[in-house]
Specification:
CATH architecture of the largest domain: Orthogonal Bundle
Bound molecules: fe (ii) ion
CATH superfamily of the largest domain: Hypothetical protein af1432
CATH class of the largest domain: Mainly Alpha
Number of domains: 2
Radius of gyration: 36 Å
Number of strands: 0
Order of helices and strands: HHHHHHHHHHHHHH
Shape: elongated
Structural class: mainly alpha
Largest sheet: none
Strand content: under 5%
């Protein structure tokens, strides 16, 4: 029965299966009634039975026909249900497998993009850890702003944590003599330096052209392009003002500023949390969006804890030792794999 149903399956879409089931039952009922009518006529004309005997025989045949009808209905129903369950189970399995593959693909893509961002970040931050910290700061700010902005949900927060790493990806296009220059930049140098926002956006747009529209890349483009825009419209590259600057870029602007100011660079010393907080206070509503600055002050203890942890661990020699340790571990693992394979 299941075999027959499977053969019949191809012309019928799943939502028509019930119609097929009902159709078969109605057809069967019609055949039984017609057959019974013919048999009854034949018996009454061919055999000389009394009226009472013919009626009893009729009731008996009708009862048998009804039982056959009901039994067939139950069998059909069970077979159809079993087949539908099997089909649904296989769909669930297939969906899970597709979701797993998509997740794996996204993880690989995110890892590659983060690696690319880290490579760019190494050029002026010694350790590349700047990106991890910005992600942590962006998460705190986005979390605190979520009651005000309905678009901020768990997925959006995960996205900004990763996309924030792309903010300075355009620095790969800036010469070392400008990027690492101690002291003030000349107006010409500043103009070149400010190009990093456009270079970053252009790089990500090239990735987008290959990958197609993607929420993560789109947020990365907004951040790379707008993280130096200011709330009062005096930022660059376009001088966007207020909420014309994307929410993600408004958040990353403060996270990046805080981390840059509280971190040591080859061309400057680190400022304390208190000094940085004072600076942010003076830029409230001019450089920074008022609500973003407000949630910074409401959560500054967490910012300070991340900064303090970072300063304990951010000695270059320690970091290089750590990198060497990780690289050695990787080589050992590869050797073990090769030995096992040999
Ligand atoms: Fe930047
Ligand atoms: Fe940065």
């Amino acid at each position: 029965m299941i075999g027959i149903l499977r053969k019949l399956e191809w012309p019928f879409r799943p939502h028509n299966r019930r119609a097929l089931f009902l159709g078969i039952l109605i057809f069967q009922a019609a055949v039984l009634v017609a057959g019974e009518f013919l048999v009854d006529t034949w018996i009454r004309t061919e055999f000389s039975l009394s009226q009472a005997s013919a009626d009893r025989l009729f009731v008996f045949r009708i009862s048998v026909a009804f039982c056959v009808f009901m039994l067939t209905g139950v069998i059909l129903f069970l077979a159809s249900k079993r087949y539908q369950d099997a089909l649904e189970q296989s769909n669930v399995k297939l969906n899970k497998e597709v979701a797993k593959q998509v997740r794996a693909g996204l993880c690989k893509r995110n890892a590659l993009i983060f690696g690319l961002a880290k490579l760019a970040d190494y050029r002026d931050t010694d350790t590349g850890a700047h990106l991890e910290r910005i992600g942590l700061y962006a998460r705190i700010l986005a979390d605190a702003l979520s009651p005000k902005y309905p678009e901020i949900n768990a997925k959006w927060i995960d996205r900004i944590v990763l996309a924030s790493s792309l903010h300075d990806i355009g620095k790969v296009g800036i010469p070392d003599s400008i990027l690492l220059k101690p002291g003030r930049l000349t107006p010409d140098e500043r103009e070149i330096m400010e190009k990093h926002a456009l270079i970053g956006a252009d790089t990500l747009l090239a990735i987008r052209a290959k990958l197609g529209a993607d929420e993560f890349i789109d947020m990365g483009i907004e951040i790379a392009l707008q993280h130096h825009e200011k709330w009062d419209g005096t930022g660059y590259p376009f001088g966007l003002e207020g909420t014309n600057i994307s929410l993600a870029a408004r958040i990353v602007a403060l996270a990046d500023f805080y981390d840059a100011v509280t971190s040591k660079r080859v061309y400057k010393e680190a400022m304390s949390h208190e000094e940085t907080a004072e600076l942010i206070k003076s830029l409230h509503g001019s450089h920074f969006a008022p609500d973003v600055a407000d949630v910074f002050f409401a959560n500054q203890a967490e910012f300070n804890a991340i900064r303090a942890h970072n300063q304990c661990n951010d000695q270059s020699s320690l970091k290089i030792m750590n990198i060497e340790h990780i690289a050695r571990q990787f080589i050992d693992e590869q050797m073990q794999i090769r030995n096992l394979a040999a």
